[in-house]
Amino acid sequence: MSAQTSGSEPLLSVRDLVQEFVVRGGTVPGRGIQGTPGVKQGVVHALSGVSFDVMPGETLGIVGETGSGKSTLARAVLQAPRPKSGSVVFRGADLTKLRGGRLLQARRHMQFVWQDPFGSLDPKWKVRSIVEEPLIAYREGDRAARRKRVDELLDLVGLDPERYGKRHPRELSGGQAQRVAIARAVALNPSLLICDEAVSSLDVLIQAQVLNLFERLRRDLGLSYLFIAHDLALVKQVSDRVGVMYLGKFCELGPGELVYKQPLHPYTRALLDSIPSTEPGAARATATIKGEPPSPIDPPSGCRFRTRCPRATEKCAAEVPQPRELASGHLVACHFPLTEPAPAGAGSGMSSEATTRSVPTTAEVQG
Amino acid sequence: MSEALLEVRDLRVAFAAGGREIRAVDGVSYQVEAGRTLAIIGESGSGKTVGCRAIMGLLPDTARISGSAQLRGTEMIGLTDGQLRKHRGQDMAMVFQDPARSLNPTMRVGTQITEAIRTHRKVSKSEAGAQAIELLRLVRIPAAERRFHEYPHQLSGGMRQRIMIAMALACRPRLLIADEATTALDVTTQAQIMELLLELQAELGMALILISHDLGLAASYADEVVVMYAGKIVEQAPASRLFGTGGTVKMRYTRALLDAIPHIERPAHAELPVVGGRPPDLSVLRAGCSFAPRCPAAADDCKEKEPALAEHAAGHRWACWHPCENGVSA
Strands B232-238, B64-71: parallel, antiparallel or unpaired by DSSP? Predict the structure, then answer.
């Protein structure tokens, strides 16, 4: 699913990305001990044909619940681990076809910021060394030039180099540690920053500071972002376009304003209705969808959302909905998008068992 | 005052650390009535959780607790662990953020609930088992009989949190404290759990305390909101008075929290209003308002004299020398 926002070449172009993980017998996450140890039990369909573009200077936001595949997507773009199939064209080079030094060179313009800043900073290193590391790894400048660059970078993210440069990560607050991670990420002047839940662990006031920092870097350095988070409002705040993921696929992808004001997919609508609002009383969040996402080991046939969808019919079980562009740049993968009245016989694709269960039983996996 | 189910007065909790005293909760007073929901809002380290743990008797012995917390007229502060055990479960119960860590991974969930019931009530194993399945149904767990025999790792996060709620409700407590109980959950699951809590509250007539960092959650689900900063209550009012169009937030800290929340109505890339700095070190004695170093409206008097929390309008308490006019920062 992709949409061109302008005539220029996309910075990152992902096509039909598929990532699958084989589950072997033994301790299966979420299911306990199953099958014969080492023998294939099933396949986790983490990404099932994901396509999108990120244009230069653009922020593409990706929202989805736990297990939707959004973090797998970030890692598959990074080629760690490599995706099963599909292409990831970044600045004209298909990363899936590059190896070794050429992959490293292609990837230097793509940097990452992860959720847990303390987990991604070496506790034994000082801030200065952490920020300097990518410069050394890519042989940028001599010692004096690197020193100057580290000062600039720390200044850029709002940390006084004199005060914080010699500290260890444990001597920093969560917000400061995330700033260090951001300084390291922008050290090599990347063109794309991939943020996976980068502000989710921060308190709201600190979160706002870091979001503003991301915006400033976007303006000052012309950065593009792939901004992945579960928080819809957060993603709206930073994104030009937003993609909504469910069980390894995009349900909907389009300009942020359109996706949030006129959602086309029933799942997007349900997500939006679940946000607690700061308007009390009337705006109380109502849980419009029941149950939890089915297991990606055994995704539903046809439309993957059909087991929880109030509009699902038999067609949804039989046919996989293909992405359609219903408005300019606004794509949806749904047989009965919200622009149309609910179909006759809606709800029949929704079996009562499937709506109420998140983890299938052993018999079903083996059967 | 007699209707209050829980009445907390001048609650203080301090910890000794390296010869210094950290005043985690510094003179907090509030009350909750049966069938009502109170949200306690604050950032990490504001004292919102420590205060409730003190009432539950869940703090380590090193904590120095003073003040009063009366549950249905009975003083909870100063009780021995044995005495408190009679009240925990029966009168008050707590649900925590991480259900995976609160459940025993080696025991079937049914056994864990049965055990919780038998700790508090003299009933046979089979009777307790039947009650446990009843509880699983109460928290809307489908196929309760089957789930009874499963282990925590076989359940999703939302399901586990329902199990924790079922255990907390085993003895039909009059007060349920939910400490960031939905923070780790997805937004649709969070909405389901919150709806469940409110339905159960109506069914059982419980009082509910929601401890959260999320003002949106407070606005959507609470009757009354308490905002804490650096161990103190800085503002308290009915949710309907604080939030929404015509909301009259007075405290600039509350305003800052509200403004910093990303909004789907805001245009993309809009600058978020921020306050700089960090919450103060609670082990350092300070003069004046604890928010003054970060406050955009701080004046000289704020740094010298601490504003007292007082009821300036009906039902609305705040602690500020220069409150917001009409709910917005001047």
Answer: unpaired
Give tens-digit pLDDT for A29-64.
Answer: 555 556 677 778 788 899 999 999 999 999 999 999
CA B41-A114-A186 angle, to 5 degrees, is 115
B105: contact with A, CB 8 A cutoff:
no
φ/ψ (deg, to 5) at A152: -60, -45
Residue A239 in contact with residue A59, Cβ under 8 Å? yes
Is some CB atom of chain A closer than 8 A to the CB atom of B86? Answer: no
Q: In what order do the strands lie in the sheet with B316-318?
A: B92-95, B175-179, B207-212, B37-41, B224-229, B232-238, B316-318, B310-313
Which superfamily is assigned to A12-109+190-366 in CATH? P-loop containing nucleotide triphosphate hydrolases (3.40.50.300)
Write down the residue that tokens 């001597």 correspond to. A171
Determine the Cα–Cα distance for residues B15 and B26; give it in Å rounded to an integer. Answer: 12
Residues of A (175-204) whose Cβ lies below 8 Å from B:
175, 203-204
Select from A30, A274, A281 the Cβ nearest to the Cβ of B187.
A274
Q: For strands A324-327 and A330-332, give the pairing.
A: antiparallel
HSE at residue B45, side-chain half, CA atoms within 13 A, is 12
The CA distance from A113 to A178, in Å, is 8
Q: In chain A, what are the domain boundaries?
A: 12-109+190-366
Alpha carbons A81 and A79: distance in angstroms, whole number:
5
- Domain B4-101+173-229 matching CATH 3.40.50.300: the answer reads yes
Task: Give the strand pairing for A93-94 and B224-229.
Answer: unpaired
- How confident is the model over B272-303, as pLDDT tens digits? 888 877 788 888 878 899 999 999 889 999 99
C-beta separation of A165 from A126 below 8 A: yes
